[in-house]
Design goal:
The complex is a heterodimer of chains A (about 300) and B (about 425). With about 300 residues, chain A is of the alpha/beta class. Chain A is about 35% helix and about 15% strand. Classes of the chains: A alpha/beta (about 300), B alpha/beta (about 425). At the A-B interface, strand 1, strand 2, helix 2 and helix 4 of A face strand 3, helix 4, helix 6 and strand 9 of B.
Chain lengths: ~300, ~425
């Protein structure tokens, strides 16, 4: 494992694989995560996209990727990845028989939002992992159906206002990490663009492997979470520091937390993360909803206590 | 090639329609076969799996988790640059609907065999054509086989047709479940070299899709002008496919000695009345036509093999040669009736005014028959022909009707009795 790669910001790639100027919202944490992942992964990547915000990356006649792009559908992007990977392997095997020189490996990157990943795309994702498909999967998790105006998805966190839960979502964010981990993929990690070194290290680590390499990127969303685009990085960092979004890896059955928050009492309370976002404003105004805030804090504390960070 | 030599090389054997489809995939040297089981198609993928496992067929077969994913993988692989074959049926075809409408827009050639089976509900395993006709607006080309031989032949032809640079579209080859899928017939298996030469090499438009030769497929567009442009490209490709089909089927006949023209005209010389049908049930019509001809009645049959693109010009020519046309639809569009009947009426109305016989359209009679594998008997063909003659004599065209007998109604009544259903008629 090249765990030692990327110790500081200075070592991150200095040039970008993706072009700028896409139609994606200002301050989109998902776009930043994709850019950073592609910088480490390299230009020789075929992106297979599901219906979601990132559909707007390639709008005729523009595409920001130096490699190819294939838009499939909301439910079946991993199956599209299967078709591309299999065809590449067939072509590669044929070329090898004719004695053609081996080309640099082309990566297949499946790109979906949390709505697809947790919902209608879950079956196709599960099956791709069952088949040990050699691919990358990046789920940009903005905790709702963002492209259609932030309706509640299975990834929406407890208490968040969405356009279909105006009083705040009563349910729980689905543990997609655990569901994916149950498939024992070659590599599984959570990332966020607000922690670029952690992100780059994980991508570099996964690059050394084959098989399913799965990433869930927390994607702060100015339009869906209701905050100013300039606060996107700040919110991403607070998600990690407050312990709301654990950064971790799952390799060979072992979970490792790569950026654990400080111990209870020393780590900032979750409300520092929540109060910056309009989707949680009802927890603070017109009066503080102490019960709900305490409940959210209690769940975060329970998580970290269970993994040994009390 | 001399006729004797060709026959010598041909390998004639008994096989089901499913095996014939698998042979089509094998002889067209499909590279990739994404798969998912469904009755009555499963034997196709099982046959291919057996061959690939034994090294008799060099293809990669991958079990997918649904037909939706299967068609996604198929389109993606074809877009990446390999020859793709797949098969499904009925509910599976409909489950893949979203992708079946998507990939024609990617302009990727591939072959999909559909084994027709009636749709739910109620549930049945037996055939009719509502599954395949639900996909008539998808952008796939459609070839309908009437025998196991035609299944094999159509797969080879479909490869050539779809991959032609003037077409570049996916092709659906249809056969009826049970009547062809599970029925063994004598099928000539062409020599592999001859089939390979006919089908040719696969030439991807955007090979590999790697950096250096990037492409963006299935992208979003902004505004109706761009959308209309690209959607209409599929229509233009279909129009071009009509001409390409004629060329390719002519070459097919020269190579293999079997006709595969877009529309089969059976005993149409001097015919006054003709049946119009697709699929294997047309062989029942053929038998009835023979019997009626023997009795001195000028009856024939028109059978489109090609349904998309719609061979309107040829159908007009044939239809305007008869006085009455009996359209037997093995499908039901609730609220309308028979789909083939409506399409033919549309093609005849005002169409082809440059053709001889323009303005002399035949009387059209519409029957729904063979739903869920229900038989159409020779006597029923006789009755339909008699009603056509009567319509010509009286000038009164009967309304569309379901072929159904009193005995069949009795049978259902008995079942309803057991199910303790009280119907208005029964009480």
């Amino acid at each position: 494992m090249t765990n030692t790669a990327y110790k500081s910001m200075k070592e991150l790639p200095g040039s970008h694989v993706m072009a700028g100027g896409t139609g994606i919202c200002a301050g989109c944490g998902g776009l930043e995560a994709i850019k950073m992942l592609c910088d480490v992964l390299g230009a020789n990547t075929i992106v297979v996209n599901a219906a979601g915000c990132m559909t707007l990356l390639s709008v005729y006649p523009h595409t920001p990727f130096p490699g190819s792009w294939l838009y499939t559908a909301m439910a079946s992007a991993p199956a599209g990845g299967q078709g591309v990977r299999d065809a590449l392997d067939i072509l590669e095997a044929r070329a090898a028989r004719t004695g053609a020189p081996r080309r640099e490996k082309t990566h297949v990157l499946v790109l979906t939002g949390d709505g697809s990943a947790n919902g209608m795309g879950l079956s196709a994702t599960s099956a791709a992992m069952d088949r040990r498909l050699d691919f990358w999967y990046l789920c940009y998790d903005n905790e709702g159906y963002g492209n259609t105006g932030q309706q509640t998805s299975a990834a929406t966190p407890h208490g968040a206002h969405t356009s279909t839960d105006p009083g705040g979502f009563a349910g729980e964010k689905k543990n997609l990490f655990a569901i994916w981990a149950a498939h024992n993929p070659s590599y599984l990690a959570t990332i966020t663009a607000a922690e670029p070194v952690d992100l780059a290290r994980k991508v570099a680590q996964a690059r050394e492997l084959e098989g399913p390499r799965m990433f869930i990127a927390l994607a702060p969303c100015p339009t869906g979470w209701h905050f100013a685009p300039r606060d996107s990085v700040k919110i991403g960092r607070l998600a990690v520091k407050t312990g709301m979004f654990p950064l971790k890896t799952f390799i060979n059955g072992r979970i490792e937390h790569t950026r654990p928050p400080q111990a209870r009492g020393r780590r900032p309370p979750v409300e520092q993360y929540l109060e910056l976002q309009g989707r949680f404003a009802h927890l603070f105004h017109p009066r503080r909803d102490e019960a709900r805030l305490a409940e959210i804090q209690r769940r975060v504390d329970m998580y970290w206590e269970a993994v040994g960070v009390a | 090639m001399k006729k004797e030599r060709r026959e010598e090389q041909m390998n004639r054997r008994l096989m089901t329609g499913n095996e014939a489809a698998a042979w089509g995939a094998r002889l067209s040297r499909a590279d990739y076969v994404p798969s998912f089981p469904i009755t009555p198609q499963t034997e196709i993928i099982e046959t291919i799996a057996r061959w690939t496992a034994a090294g008799e067929m060099e293809a990669r077969l991958v079990m997918m988790e649904s037909e939706h994913s299967m068609v996604t993988a198929a389109g993606a692989a074809a877009a990446t640059g390999v020859r793709v074959f797949m098969a499904t049926s009925s509910q599976g075809l409909l489950y893949a609907t979203e992708m079946l409408f998507s990939i024609p827009g990617w302009r990727v050639p591939l072959v999909l065999v559909n084994v027709s089976r009636g749709l739910s509900s109620p549930i049945t395993l037996e055939p009719d054509h509502n599954d395949v006709l639900a996909m008539r607006d998808s952008g796939f080309l459609q070839i309908h086989a009437a025998s196991c031989q035609e299944v094999l032949d159509a797969v080879l032809l479909a490869c050539r047709l779809g991959e032609d640079p003037r077409v570049r579209l996916p092709v659906l080859v249809n056969m009826d479940g049970f009547y062809l899928s599970f029925t063994r017939e004598a099928v000539e298996v062409p020599p592999p070299a001859l089939a390979a030469a006919f089908v040719g090499e696969f030439h991807p438009t955007q090979p590999g899709g790697a950096a250096g030769s990037p492409s963006a497929q299935g992208v979003a567009v902004m505004g109706g002008a761009t959308y209309s442009y690209f959607r209409y490209q599929v229509q233009l490709a279909h129009q071009s496919a009509l001409r390409v089909y004629d060329d390719v089927s002519r070459e097919f006949q020269q190579t293999f000695g079997r006709p595969m023209e877009a529309v089969e005209a059976y005993r149409m010389e001097g015919a006054q009345v003709a049946f119009l049908m697709i699929g294997s049930f047309s062989s029942k019509a053929r038998g009835a036509v023979d019997a009626l001809r023997e009795a001195g009645e000028p009856v024939g049959m028109i059978r489109p093999r090609l349904l998309r693109p719609y061979p309107a010009r040829r159908l007009r020519e044939l239809a305007r040669g008869v006085r009455a046309l009996v359209v037997v639809d093995q499908n039901l569009s609730p609220g309308l009736g028979g789909i083939l009947h409506g399409e033919l009426a549309g093609a005849l109305y005002n169409g082809g005014t440059d053709l001889p016989g323009a303005g002399r359209n035949p009387v059209l009679l519409s029957y729904i028959g063979g739903l869920g594998g229900r038989n159409i008997t020779t006597e029923e063909f006789f009755a339909m022909a008699a009603e056509a003659r009567e319509a010509l004599e009286t000038g009164v065209v009967p309304p569309p009707r379901l072929l159904y007998t009193g005995a069949e109604l009795e049978q259902v009544r008995r079942q309803q009795n057991m199910a303790l259903v009280k119907t208005a008629e029964a009480s």
